[in-house]
Each structure stands twice: as structure tokens, then as C-alpha cells.
């Protein structure tokens, strides 16, 4: 089992969620975060004033996936999250040793 | 060392926390999340109107545990988080390579 | 690739972030959390009244790092987060199997 964590643009959340559901993803966890990538310290002009790009609001999406579907799910995520502009996000994959569905006590693939 | 992540019903937080403390767990991290499992898209009736079940508020609980106590802690979590109704939650376990207690610099089991 | 997760004092966030940037870290993710460590149940006196230390607000910092810089980054984190008082925080390191920079599709070290 793998855990796919994606830091995405908040305004992309619904579209990404829909694309994952269309693929067949049956659950996900979402939380609020903020962050920045390589453009830190980069100055921008907003309403005439120059300001330093700081922590930008992001959504953190977590999806438990079976190993066999992980690559496909990454493709869905990348193609939906991508706008071509800086700040499109970061995705990382970690190994999960055990998953449990609390109501039924099921473990492993059956629990996702 | 393992990291146990549990997505639980918010109203269960205090009871689960108490049960973990009774078992001997000495620390935990809690954050707000939202999510859904297999009932996505399922319609329900609320105050006479049909609506689609959406992201439900959840609490995300993280507990660093020694490998030797991990199974027991999963049992405590499952038995306390379970109500028998859909939405009881998901638990997953990942491997942790290093843990540090910042104040003392201790590492490994001594740091948890 | 490694993921370094640090639970830190909120008031230390800017200083820690600055120290990481000075070291060369090019991105990070921050979210709000709360928690407690070994002082749970410890009573303190605040404005004359005794109260039980409960969940304290914390910041959760996540940094994807190359394996070769991980130890240095832990040193930066520990030395900046440490005040010598209880509650300085906890840091843990997990293995990351894949990292993707969404805009470019880059993977691995190039994506961090
Ligand atoms: N090294 C990192 N560790 C943890 N989180 C990161 C890291 N880099 C970026 N992030 C998270 O990903 C979010 C989006 O990053 P972003 O897309 O700006 O990455 P980038 O490498 O700067 O790519 P781009 O050039 O397309 O902007 C950040 O707001 C932050 O939350
Ligand atoms: N595949 C998944 N990936 C990440 N998080 C998930 C996943 N499935 C569920 N979750 C998280 O767990 C929470 C609880 O899920 P839930 O208990 O409804 O799972 P379920 O499999 O639908 O079981 P049940 O039939 O008992 O409802 C969700 O709100 C979501 O935050
Ligand atoms: N076992 C644990 N699992 C998950 N998170 C933890 C654990 N222990 C502590 N934390 C997180 O780290 C934060 C800071 O912990 P804290 O620094 O108080 O650890 P401690 O071991 O009690 O050390 P100290 O004696 O210096 O206070 C907590 O608020 C909590 O969010
Ligand atoms: Mg960027
Ligand atoms: Mg469900
Ligand atoms: Mg403490």
C-alpha cells in the first residue's frame, strides 16, 4: 500500500477530487496547509506595491492507494493539478505498512 | 519506530486520547482534516432535502510508537474509534527512520 | 529522498524557516496542529488558577530533503527549535519513494 500526498492549489481541489473519483479512488483526506517552493523571496507586484512572496495557502491531499494503481493515480494528479505556472504543487509517495478500516476491522487492500 | 496515523470522528477525540493515555502513550499530534470514504456521492436526506455526502470534518491523530507496542496501540484505537456506523475512520502505519526529542537531543526509542 | 516532519513551537516558525533557507532548503509545507508530549496531565498555574496542561498549539513543518543533506538539516532544525524548556518539539524522518514537481513533471532529486 502507498500513501500519495499532494500539495495542490486550493482552487484546484474540486477538479482534482473529481478526476480521482472518476478514476475510481474511493476515499481521500484533505487538510489546509501553506508553503512555498523555489520562488521563495521572489518579489511580486500586487496593487502597485512590491511584496515578497511568502507562505501561500495550499491544500494537502492524501490518498491511500494500492501499489498497482499508484502510477495511474499519479498521472491523474499531475495532469489535473498542472496549470503550467509556478506553484502547481509537489507530490510525494511513501510506503504504508498497514491500513485498517475501523468499522469492519478489515486490513490491507480490503481496507482502502 | 512507527508512525500511526488515524483519521477519526472529531467527537471521538477525547475518548480516544484518554484510552491511548491509559495504555501508556506519552504524546500525540492532532490536526483538523476533512475527507470521505466509500460513501462518496451517496445521497442523504437532511431536514427534508436530499444532498450529496461531501467532505466530512475529521480529526487526524498521529502517534509515534515503538514497534513492540504498535499492535496493542492499534487495538486500543480500533476498539475506541469504532461505533459500527459508516465513517468510523481509517488508520495507517508507516515506518519512521529517526525520531528526535528537540530539548534533549535524544534519538530513537528514548525520544518518543 | 526523505521527509523531515517537525512539530515545533509556533513562535519559532519564522526563525526556523529562515535558518532552513540560509542552509539552502528551497521549499517547505506548514500546517497548524496541536499536541502534547510527556508533560500530559502536568498541572500549571496560570493567572492564579491551577489547570491541566492540555493540547498546546503547534506548527507542523514538512521538508522534503535529499538524503545527503538530511543530517545537516536535522542539525539546523534542532539547534534553532531548542529553547531548553519542555515542549521544544519532536522531529521524525520517513523515507520517500517518489517526489514529483507538478509543473515540470520532474521526478526524484530534480523535483525537490
Ligand atoms: N522541499 C519541499 N518540502 C516540502 N514541501 C514542499 C517543498 N517544496 C515545495 N513544497 C510544497 O509544495 C507547494 C508547491 O510548491 P511549488 O509548486 O511552488 O514547487 P516548486 O518546486 O517551486 O515548483 P514551481 O517552480 O512550479 O513553482 C509549496 O507551497 C509547499 O507547500
Ligand atoms: N483511500 C483513502 N485515502 C486517504 N484517506 C482516506 C481514504 N479512505 C478514507 N479516508 C479517510 O478516512 C476517513 C474515514 O473514512 P471512512 O471511515 O468513511 O472509510 P470507509 O472505507 O468509507 O469505511 P465505512 O464504510 O465504515 O465508512 C475519511 O473521511 C477520509 O478522511
Ligand atoms: N509520541 C508522539 N507522537 C506524536 N507526536 C508527538 C509525540 N510526542 C510529542 N509529540 C508532538 O510533539 C510536540 C512537542 O512535544 P514535546 O516537545 O513536549 O515532547 P516531549 O517528549 O514531552 O519533550 P519535552 O520534555 O522537552 O517537553 C507535541 O505537542 C506533539 O504535537
Ligand atoms: Mg514554486
Ligand atoms: Mg465511509
Ligand atoms: Mg513535552
From TrEMBL, chains A, B, C:
InterPro entries: N-reg_PII, N-reg_PII-like_a/b, N-reg_PII/ATP_PRibTrfase_C, N-reg_PII_CS, N-reg_PII_urydylation_site. Keywords: Nucleotide-binding, Phosphoprotein, Transcription, Transcription regulation. The keyword Phosphoprotein applies. It comes from the Bacteria. Pfam families: P-II. Homotrimer. PANTHER family: NITROGEN REGULATORY PROTEIN P-II, NITROGEN REGULATORY PROTEIN P-II HOMOLOG. Belongs to the P(II) protein family. This is Nitrogen regulatory protein P-II. The lineage of its organism: Bacteria, Bacillati, Actinomycetota, Actinomycetes, Micrococcales.
Amino acid at each position: 500500500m502507498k500513501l500519495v500526498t499532494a500539495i495542490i492549489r486550493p482552487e484546484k481541489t474540486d477538479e482534482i477530487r473529481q478526476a480521482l473519483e472518476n478514476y475510481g479512488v474511493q476515499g481521500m483526506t484533505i487538510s489546509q496547509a501553506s508553503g512555498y517552493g523555489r520562488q521563495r523571496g521572489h518579489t511580486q507586484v500586487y496593487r502597485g506595491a512590491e511584496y515578497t512572496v511568502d507562505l501561500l495557502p495550499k491544500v494537502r491531499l492524501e490518498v491511500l492507494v494500492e501499489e498497482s494503481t499508484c502510477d495511474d493515480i499519479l498521472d491523474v494528479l499531475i495532469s489535473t493539478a498542472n496549470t503550467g505556472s509556478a506553484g502547481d504543487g509537489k507530490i510525494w509517495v511513501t510506503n504504508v505498512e498497514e491500513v485498517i478500516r475501523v468499522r469492519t476491522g478489515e486490513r490491507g487492500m480490503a481496507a482502502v
